[in-house]
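Consider this:
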Amino acid sequence: MTEIDSLKEKLSKLYLKAMAEHLDSVLREAQEKNRILSLLDLGFVHEHMDVVLIGNPGTGKTFLAKGIATAACNANIKVLFTSVMEMIMIWLLSEENLTGKT
């Protein structure tokens, strides 16, 4: 790993350890293993589609998201890794700034 790659990893808040090879252990129980694995080819990005991962706590949503984001980073695609709660907070703060309400 080059120094630039190391810096990209730190700045992206991703852990590059969540690579595609490690997904198999998470996907053993997944009913739609092939569909999930197909996300790693990043076709949805080129088709301008969104991906939403929904499930119970502890089912591997974050792990899968990091694996997909890692694949995107490796393909030199910009990635924003955040949570729904963080996006809502940013939206609320921007609304306050626009309306002047505190």
Observations:
- The first helix runs from residue 3 to 12.
- The CA atoms of residues 86 and 95 lie 14 Å apart.
- The chain has one domain: 3-99.
